Amino acid sequence: MPIPNMEEKTSLLVDKYGRQLNYLRLSVTDRCNFRCYYCMPEEGIDFAKRKDLMSFDEMYQLSAIFCNLGISKIRITGGEPFVRNGIMPFLNKLSRVDGLKEITVTSNGTLSTKYQAELLQMGIRKINISLDSLSRDRFHQITRRDNFEGVYAGVFKLLEDGFDVKLNCVVAENKNIQDIVPFIELTKNYPLSVRFLEEMPFNGSDGSQVASEWDYKRIYDHISQHYPEINRLISDANSTSVNYKISGYKGSFGIIPSFSRTFCGTCNRIRLSATGELRTCLYGPPVANLRDLLRRGALVNDVEQEILAAVSQRERDGYAAEVASQGAIHTSMSALGG
């Protein structure tokens, strides 16, 4: 059953700088069948115990509360969302929450095609696939898994079924620079949106790594050397990416300054991890644990007040939030929820 197209109400989630939050990133698991170098160490991380993960009922309760407060879009993340048993019945139930206009999913593409028909039936048509290289060898080096052919073929199956597909590519020296132009060339004949992301230091290491030299400016300069005529697109006011199109190409590309954080002033996102940790900024510390509130028997109003209080103290930007985190940003991206 498609998500109802209803008029969006004004969000009650307003921070002290007057920014309204209407977008929830919900992590359904910290587990993943990949071991991407920028997300977690090769040996993996200490995954949360199953009893510490929120149940789908708890996620549903919290999603309904968030939507009552003004959240109208939920992105399902992980880990890899589709590795968790029971994900599809949960999404089906979630698609019926009052006030929710859109559900999107971020996946590594190994399992998403298995559920295409069900996703379409629910009205879920937007999916982001993490794909950092168009070379099997480089893909293996980055993900530490040999799944390139399946993921790549799956992208075109999604397109054939009418999905709105975005490819997320984390750019890094000595990893995949040579893939940037081939990714853009994919948009010539296919209605794909490719997003190039600055690498972020959320890989569960000790935080000793330095910022990548490939920031959003250098990525753009590299692209402009190959394409002298680049058309900038008008993006949504809350977009994290600056978007472009090559004349005559069916698709588009964008650059996300995820480490430079130039988009913080218009950020409309809030994050909930698979263990119930609420973050008002990716770079900041958890500000509450909503799973614990539910398990202590808190009433809906109590949970709402906890969320509203957390949002009211939201930092101005990712740099201020990073100071408040006191090193917590070096948690694995898999645990943070993307």
Automatic annotation (TrEMBL):
Keyword GTP-binding: yes
Species name: Mucilaginibacter galii
One Gene Ontology MF term: GTP 3',8'-cyclase activity
Family matches, as PROSITE patterns: MOAA_NIFB_PQQE, RADICAL_SAM
First-level EC class: lyase
SMART domains: Elp3
Assigned keywords, A-Z: 4Fe-4S, GTP-binding, Iron, Iron-sulfur, Lyase, Metal-binding, Molybdenum cofactor biosynthesis, Nucleotide-binding, S-adenosyl-L-methionine
Keyword set includes S-adenosyl-L-methionine: yes
Example of a GO biological process term: Mo-molybdopterin cofactor biosynthetic process
Cofactor: [4Fe-4S] cluster
Any Pfam family the entry gives: Mob_synth_C
Reactions this protein catalyses: GTP + AH2 + S-adenosyl-L-methionine = (8S)-3',8-cyclo-7,8-dihydroguanosine 5'-triphosphate + 5'-deoxyadenosine + L-methionine + A + H(+)
Protein name in UniProt: GTP 3',8-cyclase
Domain Radical SAM core span(s) in chain numbering: 16-229
Signal peptide: none
EC number from the UniProt entry: 4.1.99.22
